[in-house]
TrEMBL record:
Membrane topology: Multi-pass membrane protein
UniProt GO cellular component terms: cytoplasmic side of endoplasmic reticulum membrane; lumenal side of endoplasmic reticulum membrane
Official protein name in the record: HM13 protein
Alphabetized Pfam families for the sequence: Peptidase_A22B
Phylogenetic lineage: Eukaryota, Metazoa, Chordata, Craniata, Vertebrata
TM annotation in the entry: 25-47, 67-85, 92-113, 191-216, 250-269, 281-304, 310-328
Region named Disordered: 358-386
Keyword Hydrolase in annotation: yes
Entries under PANTHER family matching the protein: MINOR HISTOCOMPATIBILITY ANTIGEN H13 (PTHR12174:SF23), SIGNAL PEPTIDE PEPTIDASE (PTHR12174)
Length: 386
């Protein structure tokens, strides 16, 4: 993950022509705003996600073991991509990646806009329910692979997202790229939950070292960013005022610089709510810290004219500011003893086996309803789980 200025091919490089002060201010200001939106709304949606009693809407919980391994896995993936681009044809690799992110992006964008779009449908809209169910095995050993319930409204959202997907696939336009990037970021902040603050510190600390090493220590990160044609970054043209929507001199911010601090900020929001003081002190503190860290990244990059590992500045700010507030308020013990998953798991119905039922998926669902203590609710599977 890095912040950089790059040309139309995605390279972290000097601008083709000197960018105007107004163009740079517009580009960097837009990047900051686009980074803040998925963090803010993703954190709010993570609270609803955590309170959900529906097992299909359960977030993915990151443990301390996962956090410790993540920088190693990310390093291996990054190095693997680097070698792939060096050995194989860049064109064919990007074609495969484009198809993969085309499908994933449509699902992510559909999941993102679905709650907002529900407000625009009329009350008499003919809304039919559908279910996509895949299982393996039989009897008590039957395991659910996919159980995706959706309705007509979801299909409308999916169709709208598909238009953006086709636009991205055909044109690779920066607006389509950003729509997918924002959807990925919001879904990541909403559905990836750290189980406690200690795990967050391990994850951010490990990726702090990862980011600094791969940006400053080698050219691997920059080379992959240059070759990788996928919506894994937000971009905004610095020459928008001169060339309009066809501008090609971009400033860039990796999605990792949004999602990684974002899931830590979302954890602090859930911690705020657990204190039952009707204040969001730690959330707002970390949110301001993120703005400060991202602003410092852009300032340093502008001064030294070199791509910067944004986590170098974001991690100390996002951890340090809330920790100072906790020290001042005498709540350090409460902060580090808070367990996010403890509020979810004891109340969440778990289905340990599937009943043997013949017939339609509806009959299977009715049988499952009798097994569970809570009434059956509409299940909305996350794109990441698919």
């Amino acid at each position: 993950a890095e912040a950089a200025a790059h040309n139309g091919s995605g390279a972290a490089a000097a601008a083709r022509a000197p960018a105007t002060a107004e163009g740079m201010a517009l580009a960097y200001g837009s990047l900051v705003l686009m980074a803040l939106l998925p963090i803010f709304f993703g954190a709010l949606r993570s609270v609803s996600c955590a309170k959900s009693k529906n097992s299909s809407e359960m977030p993915e919980t990151i443990t301390s073991r996962d956090a410790a391994r993540f920088p190693i896995v990310a390093s291996c993936t990054l190095l693997g991509l680097y070698l792939f681009f060096k050995i194989f044809s860049q064109e064919y690799i990007n074609l495969l990646l484009s198809m993969y992110f085309f499908v994933l992006g449509i699902l992510a964008l559909s999941h993102t806009i679905s709650p907002m779009m529900n407000r625009f449908f009329p009350a008499n809209f003919p809304n039919k329910q559908y279910q996509l169910l895949f299982t393996q095995g039989s009897g008590e050993t039957k395991e659910e692979i996919v159980n995706y319930e959706f309705d007509t409204k979801d299909l409308v959202c999916l169709a709208m997202s598909s238009v953006v997907g086709v636009w991205y696939l055909l044109r690779k336009h920066w607006i389509a790229n950003n729509l997918f990037g924002l959807a990925f970021s919001l879904n990541g902040v909403e559905l990836l939950h750290l189980n406690n603050v200690s795990t967050g510190c391990i994850l951010l600390g490990g990726l702090f070292i990862y980011d600094v090493f791969w940006v400053f220590g080698t050219n691997v990160m920059v080379t992959v960013a240059k070759s990788f044609e996928a919506p894994i970054k937000l971009v905004f043209p610095q020459d928008l005022l001169e060339k309009g929507l066809e501008a090609d001199n971009f400033a860039m911010l990796g999605l990792g610089d949004i999602v990684i601090p974002g899931i830590f900020i979302a954890l602090l929001l859930r911690f705020d709510i657990s204190l039952k003081k009707n204040t969001h002190t730690y959330f707002y503190t970390s949110f301001v810290a993120y703005i400060f860290g991202l602003g410092l990244t852009i300032f340093i990059m502008h001064i030294f004219k070199h791509a910067q590992p944004a986590l170098l500045y974001l991690v100390p700010a996002c951890i340090g500011f809330p920790l100072l507030v906790a020290l001042a308020k005498g709540e350090v013990t409460e902060m580090f003893s808070y367990e996010s998953s403890a509020e979810i798991l004891p109340h969440t119905p778990r289905l340990t086996h599937f009943p043997t039922v013949s017939g339609s998926p509806a009959s299977l669902a009715d049988s499952m309803q009798q097994k569970l203590p809570c009434p059956r609710r509409r299940r909305q599977q996350s794109p990441s789980a698919l």
